[in-house]
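Work Package 3 (structural annotation) set out to generate three-dimensional models for the target panel prioritized at the project kickoff. During this period the team completed the workflow that converts sequence records into discrete structure tokens, so that structures can be stored uniformly alongside our sequence database. As a representative example, we reproduce one entry of 393 residues exactly as it appears in the project archive.
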Amino acid sequence: MMDRSYLEWPFFTKEHVDFARRLDTFCRDQLSRIESEDDESEAGLDRTCREIARRLGAAGFLDPCVVQTAGGAFDVRRLCLGREILASHRGLADFVFAMQGLGTGPISLFGTEEQRKRYLPPVVRGENIAAFALSEPNAGSDVASMTTRAVRDGKHYVVNGTKTWISNGGIAAHYVLFASTGEAPGAKGLSAFIVDADTPGLKIAERVRVIAPHPLATLKFEDCRIPASAMLGNPGEGFQVAMGTLDVFRTTVGAAALGFARRALHEALGRVLERDVFGKKLSTFQLTQAKIADMGVGVDAAALLVYRAAWTRDTAKRRITREASMAKLYATETAQEVIDMAVQLFGGTGVVSGKAVETLYREIRALRIYEGTSEIQRLVIANEILKSFSKAS
């Protein structure tokens, strides 16, 4: 069993600890029973994702992914615990959990009562899959350069454009879409909409294959008419909707990386304690012990940053731009290093397809890119530190 002693830290309430332990038990009992079909095939991957969502929803573990009460707030510590524990057991389960939150986060935070009642309950039950459609072929981190347009036409908006790298593309029941409505130049002219997957004019242009199989797609909008009532917030508030949502979920990316790193350390410990080399256990060599020490320090330091950010958001009820960016940057970069060391300790076995550490090696790489690359996080952190210094001077 993986180390869960961090649950004794003062960041958590009894309810958080109970949630984490129940989820850990669920993962051992339930996730192992979901037979992975050929995840290289779209159909097999889609079925696996739907089944994971169904089981998580039936067990009540998707509750943290939405805010059911208007004016309420996400429990970010619960979201982070969910992602860390799921990631430590199965990367695809973390993906499903995370996207149920990110794909409905804007509705939870900015939706009308009607929108909330229509879209949130099926997602919590695991019956519907959610998606967040922000990125474009030439507009990832630079959201202001978005070219997808939504033009008002009576009681509707007509959308034209392309979105790509969209998680759950092709299996989602709805997409939270960001498009330019032109109220002002750049980011100030963006708006957010809920688009049902069966809306005429929306099509899946391409399924995107990546090194760690997840359902990703490129979406095309061609004269796609959506009702004006599908807008989230007001015209021109799309950037606020996107950043408000990402400010909650960015910390959870660090938590997922932490789960991957913790699993890698667990696997490495099992390996070095049983592996005989030159007549001795691999664990007795000082070079091995140095790696284990570095891995352990990295995991705990990442956990402290992740749960500091989550605790601050939950208790101070404020934006945590600096804390979230620090958590994501450090946890994802460190997890990459920890997993690499685990692969090295496994030797040739570590690069055999399907082995735990080989899977982790592929899973971790995307986390240093999505929801703000490591390079962008460094710019954000520096800007926040400089602003704080200027205010104090």
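The mean pLDDT is 94.
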